[in-house]
Structures are given as C-alpha cells and as structure tokens.
Amino acid sequence: MSNSHSSPEERHSVLHIWGRQPLSGHVTISGAKNSALVLMAGSILCSGTCRLRNVPSLLDITRIGEILSALGVKVSHSQGILDLDASEITQSKAPYDLVSQLRASFFVAGPLLARLGVAQVPLPGGCSIGDRPVDLHVKGLQALGAEVIIEHGVVHARLRGNRKRLTGARIYLDFPSVGATENIMMAATLAEGETIIENAAQEPEVVDLANFCRAMGAQIRGAGTNRIVINGVPQLHETEYSVVPDRIEAGTFLLAGAITRSEISLSPVVPDHLSATIAKLSEIGVKVAIDAPDRIRVLPTEQFRGTDIETLPFPGFPTDLQAPFMSLLTLAEGDSMVTEKLFENRLQHVAELNRMGADIRLKGNIAIVRGVPQLSGAPVQGTDLRASAALVIAGLAANGMTTVRGLNHLDRGYDNIEAKLRGLGAKIQRAQEAEIPAAPAESKRS
C-alpha cells in the first residue's frame, strides 16, 4: 500500500471552488470508509486470506493497512480490491507512530486479543472533534476475561491466568458506542460460550461487520438491533466480502445537489441507511426520489425552509452529516437550530461558514442558523473531516471563489471528491496554496 505520510505539497494543497454552477448527472458512491476500516481489522480473526471488494481509496485505508502490515498481515490493494492474509501474525503490538494518526486503529485490539491472547495498542488519534474515550472497549474486553492495564499511553490486554480463549459474557454498554460494539463483537467471535451485548450500536457499519464475520463462519445474531448475541467458535475461515456503500458520502452528495438546486442521481446506496437524512430534506422542502433499491435522486428545489436537527445514534440523524447539512440550512428560509449531542467539538465549521456570509450563532452545543439570501466565496479552513465537506458544499453555492484548506482531513474520508463533483459539472480544482488560480473551462459532465 502507498505511503500514508502526506508530502509537504499535499499538506499545502487547497481546493478552489467557483460556486453557483448547476450540477447534473450521476455519481458512483464508494464503499463505506467506516465499514472498510473495521473489516480490515476484523481480517485478523481469520488465520487465512480475506478478500474485500468495494474498498475506497483513502488515506485512512492506507494507514490501517500499514498498521496491519506492521503486525505481520500481508496487505495488497488494487482498484478497490483488498487482499489480507493474516495467516502469520508476528506482532501483538501496534506501532505508536501509525496508531496515533487514526482513531479506527484501536479496532485491532479485540481481534488481536481473540486470536493471540495478547494485544498492545497505543491510545488512538484522529479528528479532534471531542472526547472519545476507549473505556467502553476496555470494560467489554475485561468482561470477556482479559486483564487490561493502560500504561504510558498504551493499552495492554492479555488473557488471565492459563486461559487459552476469551470467555463469553453479558455486557451492557453505558452508551451505544459503534467502536465498542464492534471491538467487543469481534473479540467475542472466538470466545468460549455466548456473549450478549446490550444497548449495542445499531449503525449499518455494525451490521456490515457482523455479516463479514458471519461470512467467515462466526455465529452472530441481532446486529442492527440493540441486543447482539455471539456464540463463539474455535476459528474463522477465509472469505470474500463486499463493503457496504458509504451512507455519509451519499448524504454529502444529496446535500450538494440540494444546495445547488440541481438534479443528480446516486448509486449504489442503501436508502434505509439514509432515512433520517431523506426525512429532514423532505421536511425542508427538498424532494428525494428512490428510483431503484440501490439508486436515489435529489430533485431541484428553488426554495427550502429551516428546520431543527439533533444528532443521535442510528437510526437518528447522523453526526457525520451535521456539518454538511448546516451548510444547506445557511440558505434556508427562516431559522434553524442544530444541536450536536454526540461530540463536544463538532461545531468548529460555524466560524468558517460565517466567514462566507452565513448568519450562525453558537450557544454551547447548539447552533442557531438564520437563513441568508446568498453566501460569498472566501478562504476557509477545514478543521475536521466533515467540517471540510461542509465547506466544499457551501462553496458550491457561494458567489465567487471559495478556497478550502485542510484537505488532509477531507482526503481521509472522501474518495476523489473533486473528480466526482467535476463529473457533475462543478468548477473545482486542486492546487498548491501559492498558485494563483484561473477559473477552469466548462466541466464535462458524466
């Protein structure tokens, strides 16, 4: 896999967006980043080769691939297909310099512990959007019979005494954490006996992981509900599996179509994964048509109205679409109130949207958005992955040119977003920060 450490040129690249261009055509939605990352970690559970299809080409995918390689997993990625051979894991300790860059790297803890009986994983990094402790992961692994200590920023976990396997347990999560649900579920697949996870996360990515583990021979039922039951098996076998489409990328493109008052279609998607987003779009007056089981279309809307949004665990409104949806609400008629209930630092895009002429006031974790007639292009800074996407969406609708910095965040979660937008007719180009841009010629649409 390619080197994850971005070059100085990449670190200083920006996106120039010339706004108020109508979009049209079709966009292909990539595999879900948040599924692919945990499925890659889950491949550790199999003592053979797993092939994953529909894997997006992203910086985070590269990073977790490097972590797996450091553990002894053979990793090969080509054109959306990822081959992972974990037959000879040589290390139980994940490297600090890689783990510190990626929150999802902590997913290797459960599989390593289940497979080897020992795991050493540094506390993870990632977007600075708030406090996301690993205490629920740790409590879950302890309930399964692991001895866990955190020392000098490293989580050390091992089987107690002379035990050869983890032991099934009933585990109640104080909060339906996606990461903790997934880590505990993976660890439990190879445990002795039955594990029950109560108040489990119900996100589609949890279901995707359960389906992947089942494809390897795991016995899991109830994924997608708040109670998951896992009956441990001695070992898992090789499999091929296709990653579910990315509901957050799909939602982002729906919002791009809505804010530019355009008609675009998206596939493949799972419409049920977008229920809350589609419902909110409908509430403000934006129509979304479901054309086929895996294809949806946003229809042009001249005027839309404000609404209130509160982020919640699935099936509630996704925190990952809060920032992009706020961009749309800046141009809605009337007032909107956006309440971020999951992460305390996830409203950093507000100041940048205001720089573009939005009228947003912050009160703690609540943003009060008063719709304005138009946004104006400006230089803005992406502070995290979804904030960066929000600024791109705002730039598509703004008068003049918007320059988005902080693409290291954007590139972690969107597979070639500017090429996909150009294919729909957007005027957008990536350049070095020092370059003085000239507006590109009319884009060709797919």
Poorly predicted regions? 1-9, 126-132
Order of adjacent strands in the largest pleated sheet: 21-22-1-23
Euclidean distance between termini CA atoms: 30 Å
Rg over C-alpha atoms, rounded to the nearest angstrom: 22 Å
Structural class: alpha+beta
Number of helices: 15
Strand content: 15-25%
Share of helix, binned: 25-40%
Describe the main β-sheet briefly. Answer: 4 strands, mixed
Average pLDDT score: 91
Number of E-state strands: 23
Overall 3D form: elongated
Oligomerization: single chain
Which tags fit this structure?
4-stranded mixed sheet; disordered N terminus; elongated; alpha+beta; 446 residues; single chain
Please describe what this structure looks like.
- The chain has helices at 8-11, 33-42, 59-71, 96-99, 109-116, 135-143, 178-189, 204-215, 247-259, 275-284, 322-329, 349-355, 385-397, 407-410, 417-423, and strands at residues 13-18, 24-28, 49-53, 74-78, 81-85, 118-122, 146-151, 154-159, 170-172, 194-198, 219-221, 227-231, 239-242, 263-267, 288-292, 295-298, 308-310, 335-339, 359-363, 366-370, 379-381, 401-405, 427-432.
- The chain is an alpha+beta fold and 446 residues long.
- The strands form six sheets. A four-stranded mixed β-sheet has the order 21-22-1-23.
- β11 and β12 (227-231) form a beta hairpin.
- α6 runs parallel beside α7 (178-189).
- The protein starts with 7 loop residues before the first helix and ends in a 14-residue tail after the last strand.
Question: How would the blueprint of this fold be written?
Answer:
Elements: H1 8-11, E1 13-18, E2 24-28, H2 33-42, E3 49-53, H3 59-71, E4 74-78, E5 81-85, H4 96-99, H5 109-116, E6 118-122, H6 135-143, E7 146-151, E8 154-159, E9 170-172, H7 178-189, E10 194-198, H8 204-215, E11 219-221, E12 227-231, E13 239-242, H9 247-259, E14 263-267, H10 275-284, E15 288-292, E16 295-298, E17 308-310, H11 322-329, E18 335-339, H12 349-355, E19 359-363, E20 366-370, E21 379-381, H13 385-397, E22 401-405, H14 407-410, H15 417-423, E23 427-432
Parallel strand pairs: 2-14, 3-13, 9-10, 17-18, 21-22
Antiparallel strand pairs: 1-22, 1-23, 3-5, 4-5, 6-8, 7-8, 10-12, 11-12, 14-16, 15-16, 18-20, 19-20
Helix pairs in contact: 2-3, 2-8, 5-7, 6-7, 7-8, 9-11, 9-13, 11-13
